[in-house]
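Summary of Year 1 activities. Much of the first year was spent building the evaluation harness for sequence design. The harness presents a backbone, in tokenized form, and records the residue chosen at every position. We chose the following record to illustrate the format because it has been used consistently in internal testing since the harness was completed.
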């Protein structure tokens, strides 16, 4: 896996023939450009700044995988408890 942040890094990564490329903090337009530039030669994963609200637009860019860190680092805790009464 290789992580890239821009087109220059993407071109460099492609020359190394990685198993897949992680596209970090890119806009949907940039993601679409990466998909076009790689033309299916290597699977692409979008990551960074993706939320439930933006995941559809990211998916429509054509990437193969999407990581949504907000599912774990931005989750709101639910305060619950269980009380057992002895009879």
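For this record, the design step produced the sequence shown next.
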């Amino acid at each position: 896996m290789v992580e890239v942040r821009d087109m220059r890094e993407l071109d460099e990564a492609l020359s190394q023939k990685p198993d897949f490329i992680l596209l970090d903090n890119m806009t949907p337009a940039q993601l679409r450009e990466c998909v076009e530039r790689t033309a299916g030669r290597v699977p692409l994963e979008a990551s960074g700044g993706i939320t439930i609200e933006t995941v559809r637009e990211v998916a429509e860019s054509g990437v193969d995988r999407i990581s949504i860190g907000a599912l774990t680092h931005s989750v709101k805790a639910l305060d619950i408890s269980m009380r057992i009464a002895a009879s």
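Residues 13 and 70 are 27 Å apart (CA to CA). Quantitative recovery figures across the full test set are reported in Table 2.
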